[in-house]
Design brief:
171 residues, alpha+beta, TATA-Binding Protein, 2 domains, four-stranded antiparallel beta sheet, 30% helix
């Protein structure tokens, strides 16, 4: 189970952002990301209200940020842009590359997290290298509650990834 303790003070409806790295991160880059984002989050504001948030790296591949505005309501577009800039700045300092947004992230037979283009994932499915039971990751989650409920990693047949296997989701 992933360690979600950095988010313990945040509500389930906290907004969530997930960025997948192109390669697994060692402790040095993980710490650099956490430190930079911790400083940013400590000063983050939206519409004049402080933003409560936290960041962590899960499975050595996913930078996860969760946050909620202390003034109620959503975090502003400018506030989200500030977060995106902070993430890009932190990543560039330690030469982290991100997985292209249309790639599929899944757990290989050896337990590692890998990414592939959708076409490559479909080809692997046709060849039997990935199946309906292959654990896949959904970095499009938008709430902390979804992450807490185990929606980040689940069998391919229970997610939108099923369409890449040629089967309807949930079967």
């Amino acid at each position: 189970m992933a360690d979600l303790s950095p988010f313990s003070a945040l509500p389930d409806d906290a907004r969530l952002w997930i960025h997948a790295t192109a390669e697994p991160l060692s402790e040095g880059p993980r710490a650099a990301l956490r430190d930079h984002l911790s400083t940013f989050i400590g000063d983050w504001a939206s519409h004049g209200h402080a933003v409560d948030g936290a960041a962590t790296v899960l499975h050595d591949r996913f930078l996860v940020v969760a946050a909620v505005s202390t003034g109620g309501g959503d975090i502003s577009g400018c506030g989200i842009d500030d977060l995106a800039h902070a993430i890009d700045q932190a990543a560039s300092r330690v030469d982290i590359k991100w997985v292209p947004s249309l790639h599929v992230l899944y757990r290989a037979g050896d337990g590692s997290v890998v990414s592939a283009s959708r076409r490559a994932f479909q080809t692997q499915a046709e060849e039997g290298a990935v199946t309906a039971e292959t654990p896949v990751f959904d970095p499009s989650l938008t709430t902390l509650g979804a992450l807490r409920n185990g929606q980040l990693e689940k069998p391919a047949h229970t997610s939108w990834h099923a369409q890449l296997l040629g089967t309807p989701a949930g079967t």
